[in-house]
Amino acid sequence: MGWPFTRKDKDKDDEATKKSVLADTLPEAATEAIMQARQVVASTQKSMESTLDRTVASATPALSAIMADKIPASVQPYVITSAVFGAGALAIMIYRRQLRRIPTSAYLTPDMLQGRRVLRGKVTSVGDADNFRFYHTPGGFLSGWGWLRHVPKSNQELKGQTMHVRLAGVDAPEGAHFGMPAQPFSKEALEWLRSQLLGKTVFVKPYAKDRYDRVVSVAWVRRTIPFLPKKNVSLEMLKIGYGQVYKQAGAEYGGFLAEFERTEAAAKARKKGIWSQKVVVSAAEHKKQYLRGGDNS
């Protein structure tokens, strides 16, 4: 005599129970949609498990044959152990280099500077015309960013979780702060940078930290048309005349100095932005004049 209650019957009862519970709290259409979604997930999971089982089953005899043919039986356990530890070490290395989130500049190691890494993230704020706040999102979409993991929005959540990035090789007009008057085109430069970066995915290559603990970086942003080369933000700013090539001590250019200088010369010849003025005062000189107590020229 067989069991009075088979596995199949139990599954049907469980399904009926789930529908009954959902029906008490949701409209019928929503209940049916949820149950269908669960069936799809379960079916997909079973399919993946089956595929994995078949792959392992087909690969195991081949691996065993190779080991039996090439590696003595007494050595095989050591080879397997070494392979497992090697795979684990590789996974840890990939995580540390590519998937571990860097919350602030304090977590940047010397290996991450000098242009050795490109970091991907979202710009959460633009407070000045040549720097911004950057939230690191390693791995991008494939790591769940945008659909499973999300960039915080409130200032409270973002506190201590962003890097302050300074654009390499470019100096934008200074805005008004600490009693210092704004330079011409400072507002336009700030609005332009916000339009280019705020809320967008940006790729930064860090080169150094400045005295304000900002991460001096070359930054790129995607163009409107997909698959075209990304825009170098510093270069674009020089092109429209909203900045000058930064020439102070410790300046970083990421290998773009010659291109920066050519672009600045072209903007100057066309009288773009700041170059439309008869007299152009650099941001660095503007600050010096303020510190000396005003323009005494």
From TrEMBL:
PROSITE patterns registered for this protein in UniProt: TNASE_3
Gene3D superfamilies in the record: 2.40.50.90
Keywords: Calcium, Endonuclease, Hydrolase, Membrane, Metal-binding, Mitochondrion, Nuclease, Transmembrane, Transmembrane helix
Region (Disordered): 1-20
Biased composition (Basic and acidic residues): 1-18
Keyword Protein transport: no
Membrane topology: Single-pass membrane protein
Membrane-spanning residues: 75-95
The TNase-like domain, residue ranges: 117-277
GO CC annotations, alphabetized: membrane; mitochondrion
Main location: membrane
Subcellular compartments: Membrane; Mitochondrion
InterPro entries cross-referenced by the UniProt entry: SNase_OB-fold_sf (IPR035437), Staphylococal_nuclease_OB-fold (IPR016071)
One term of GO molecular function: hydrolase activity
PANTHER family: EBNA2 BINDING PROTEIN P100, SERINE_THREONINE-PROTEIN KINASE 31
Family, per entry: Belongs to the LCL3 family.
Name listed for the protein in its UniProt record: Probable endonuclease LCL3
Lineage: Eukaryota, Fungi, Fungi incertae sedis, Mucoromycota, Mortierellomycotina
